[in-house]
Design goal:
By secondary structure, the protein is mainly alpha-helical. It is built from nine helices and four strands; from the N terminus they run ααβααβααβααβα. About 8% of the residues have low confidence.
Protein backbone atom coordinates (compact mmCIF):
# COMPACT_ATOMS: atom_id res chain seq x y z
CA UNK A 1 0.00 0.00 0.00
CA UNK A 2 1.17 3.44 -0.87
CA UNK A 3 -0.36 6.30 1.08
CA UNK A 4 -3.29 4.12 2.03
CA UNK A 5 -3.95 3.04 -1.56
CA UNK A 6 -4.08 -0.66 -2.49
CA UNK A 7 -1.46 -1.97 -4.89
CA UNK A 8 -2.63 -2.26 -8.49
CA UNK A 9 -3.79 -5.68 -9.55
CA UNK A 10 -2.56 -7.10 -12.82
CA UNK A 11 -5.40 -8.04 -15.11
CA UNK A 12 -5.04 -11.22 -17.20
CA UNK A 13 -5.12 -9.14 -20.39
CA UNK A 14 -2.01 -7.30 -19.16
CA UNK A 15 0.18 -10.42 -18.90
CA UNK A 16 1.52 -10.14 -22.44
CA UNK A 17 2.93 -6.69 -21.68
CA UNK A 18 4.84 -8.00 -18.67
CA UNK A 19 7.25 -10.07 -20.76
CA UNK A 20 9.84 -7.97 -22.54
CA UNK A 21 10.43 -8.73 -26.17
CA UNK A 22 13.72 -10.59 -26.49
CA UNK A 23 16.32 -10.34 -29.19
CA UNK A 24 17.64 -13.43 -30.90
CA UNK A 25 20.80 -14.73 -29.26
CA UNK A 26 23.13 -17.61 -30.17
CA UNK A 27 21.73 -19.59 -27.22
CA UNK A 28 18.13 -19.13 -28.37
CA UNK A 29 19.11 -20.01 -31.95
CA UNK A 30 20.82 -23.16 -30.63
CA UNK A 31 17.55 -24.12 -28.89
CA UNK A 32 15.53 -23.42 -32.04
CA UNK A 33 17.97 -25.50 -34.06
CA UNK A 34 17.71 -28.42 -31.67
CA UNK A 35 13.93 -28.25 -32.03
CA UNK A 36 13.80 -28.11 -35.85
CA UNK A 37 17.10 -29.71 -36.91
CA UNK A 38 15.67 -33.13 -37.73
CA UNK A 39 13.31 -31.60 -40.27
CA UNK A 40 14.45 -30.59 -43.73
CA UNK A 41 11.32 -28.50 -44.26
CA UNK A 42 9.41 -26.59 -41.59
CA UNK A 43 6.24 -24.60 -42.15
CA UNK A 44 6.43 -20.85 -41.76
CA UNK A 45 3.54 -21.18 -39.33
CA UNK A 46 5.49 -23.53 -37.05
CA UNK A 47 8.48 -21.19 -37.03
CA UNK A 48 6.26 -18.17 -36.36
CA UNK A 49 4.44 -19.95 -33.55
CA UNK A 50 7.68 -20.97 -31.86
CA UNK A 51 9.14 -17.49 -32.40
CA UNK A 52 6.13 -15.87 -30.75
CA UNK A 53 6.10 -18.38 -27.89
CA UNK A 54 9.69 -17.32 -27.11
CA UNK A 55 8.60 -13.67 -27.30
CA UNK A 56 11.34 -12.90 -29.80
CA UNK A 57 11.43 -9.61 -31.67
CA UNK A 58 9.83 -9.93 -35.06
CA UNK A 59 12.46 -7.88 -36.93
CA UNK A 60 14.82 -10.84 -37.27
CA UNK A 61 12.03 -13.21 -38.30
CA UNK A 62 10.75 -10.75 -40.88
CA UNK A 63 14.28 -10.11 -42.18
CA UNK A 64 14.97 -13.86 -42.57
CA UNK A 65 11.65 -14.56 -44.28
CA UNK A 66 12.12 -11.59 -46.62
CA UNK A 67 15.75 -12.24 -47.50
CA UNK A 68 15.16 -15.97 -47.94
CA UNK A 69 12.03 -15.45 -50.06
CA UNK A 70 10.58 -18.59 -48.50
CA UNK A 71 7.22 -20.06 -49.40
CA UNK A 72 4.97 -21.77 -46.89
CA UNK A 73 7.61 -24.49 -46.44
CA UNK A 74 10.99 -23.27 -45.22
CA UNK A 75 14.25 -25.17 -45.60
CA UNK A 76 15.37 -25.19 -41.97
CA UNK A 77 19.11 -24.90 -42.60
CA UNK A 78 18.61 -21.91 -44.90
CA UNK A 79 16.48 -20.17 -42.30
CA UNK A 80 19.03 -21.07 -39.63
CA UNK A 81 21.81 -19.63 -41.81
CA UNK A 82 19.94 -16.36 -42.25
CA UNK A 83 19.45 -16.13 -38.49
CA UNK A 84 23.21 -16.58 -38.10
CA UNK A 85 23.69 -13.78 -40.61
CA UNK A 86 21.36 -11.59 -38.55
CA UNK A 87 23.42 -12.34 -35.42
CA UNK A 88 26.79 -11.90 -37.12
CA UNK A 89 26.10 -8.91 -39.34
CA UNK A 90 28.31 -10.17 -42.18
CA UNK A 91 29.12 -13.47 -43.86
CA UNK A 92 32.32 -14.17 -41.91
CA UNK A 93 30.68 -13.60 -38.53
CA UNK A 94 27.55 -15.49 -39.60
CA UNK A 95 29.75 -18.50 -40.33
CA UNK A 96 31.44 -18.11 -36.94
CA UNK A 97 28.02 -18.15 -35.28
CA UNK A 98 26.95 -21.19 -37.33
CA UNK A 99 30.12 -23.14 -36.50
CA UNK A 100 29.74 -22.47 -32.78
CA UNK A 101 26.08 -23.49 -32.77
CA UNK A 102 26.52 -26.54 -35.02
CA UNK A 103 29.74 -27.80 -33.45
CA UNK A 104 29.07 -31.47 -32.84
CA UNK A 105 32.48 -32.44 -31.49
CA UNK A 106 32.94 -31.56 -27.82
CA UNK A 107 36.60 -32.60 -28.16
CA UNK A 108 37.20 -29.97 -30.84
CA UNK A 109 39.06 -27.10 -29.13
CA UNK A 110 37.73 -24.73 -31.77
CA UNK A 111 34.17 -24.83 -33.13
CA UNK A 112 34.18 -27.02 -36.21
CA UNK A 113 31.81 -28.38 -38.85
CA UNK A 114 32.23 -30.61 -41.87
CA UNK A 115 33.58 -28.95 -45.00
CA UNK A 116 30.46 -29.99 -46.94
CA UNK A 117 28.17 -28.28 -44.41
CA UNK A 118 30.37 -25.18 -44.32
CA UNK A 119 30.28 -25.07 -48.12
CA UNK A 120 26.47 -25.20 -48.19
CA UNK A 121 26.16 -22.44 -45.59
CA UNK A 122 28.73 -20.22 -47.28
CA UNK A 123 27.37 -20.63 -50.81
CA UNK A 124 23.85 -19.89 -49.60
CA UNK A 125 24.96 -16.72 -47.78
CA UNK A 126 27.02 -15.59 -50.78
CA UNK A 127 24.02 -16.14 -53.06
CA UNK A 128 21.27 -14.66 -50.90
CA UNK A 129 23.24 -11.58 -49.82
CA UNK A 130 24.53 -11.08 -53.37
CA UNK A 131 27.92 -9.99 -52.02
CA UNK A 132 30.06 -12.46 -53.97
CA UNK A 133 30.01 -14.01 -57.38
CA UNK A 134 29.85 -17.78 -57.61
CA UNK A 135 33.41 -17.75 -58.96
CA UNK A 136 34.70 -15.74 -55.95
CA UNK A 137 32.92 -18.08 -53.55
CA UNK A 138 34.26 -21.20 -55.26
CA UNK A 139 37.83 -19.82 -55.25
CA UNK A 140 37.54 -19.12 -51.53
CA UNK A 141 36.19 -22.61 -50.88
CA UNK A 142 39.01 -24.14 -52.91
CA UNK A 143 41.61 -22.28 -50.82
CA UNK A 144 39.86 -23.26 -47.60
CA UNK A 145 39.64 -26.91 -48.63
CA UNK A 146 43.37 -26.95 -49.36
CA UNK A 147 44.06 -25.33 -46.01
CA UNK A 148 41.91 -27.73 -43.98
CA UNK A 149 42.61 -30.93 -45.89
CA UNK A 150 40.82 -33.21 -43.42
CA UNK A 151 37.21 -32.42 -44.31
CA UNK A 152 36.63 -30.36 -41.16
CA UNK A 153 36.52 -26.56 -40.99
CA UNK A 154 37.40 -24.87 -37.73
CA UNK A 155 36.62 -21.25 -36.97
CA UNK A 156 40.35 -20.59 -36.72
CA UNK A 157 40.73 -21.80 -40.33
CA UNK A 158 38.86 -18.80 -41.69
CA UNK A 159 38.22 -16.16 -39.06
CA UNK A 160 41.63 -14.48 -39.15
CA UNK A 161 42.76 -15.48 -42.63
CA UNK A 162 41.80 -12.47 -44.68
CA UNK A 163 43.19 -14.08 -47.84
CA UNK A 164 39.92 -15.98 -47.78
CA UNK A 165 37.38 -13.58 -49.21
CA UNK A 166 34.34 -14.67 -47.25
CA UNK A 167 32.81 -11.22 -47.37
CA UNK A 168 34.35 -8.51 -49.59
CA UNK A 169 32.90 -5.73 -47.42
CA UNK A 170 35.04 -6.53 -44.38
Amino acid sequence: MVKGQPLPVCQPSDHHTLHAVRNLTPEILRDLHSQFNGQRLVSQGAIMLTWKSLNLAENCLTAAFTLGRFGEQVEWMKFFTLCCNYLGGNIRQALVQACHILNSDPECPDACVSFSLFKCLYLYLAYVTNKLTLQQAEETLSLLQQKTGNGVVRVSDFVSDYKLILDPNQ
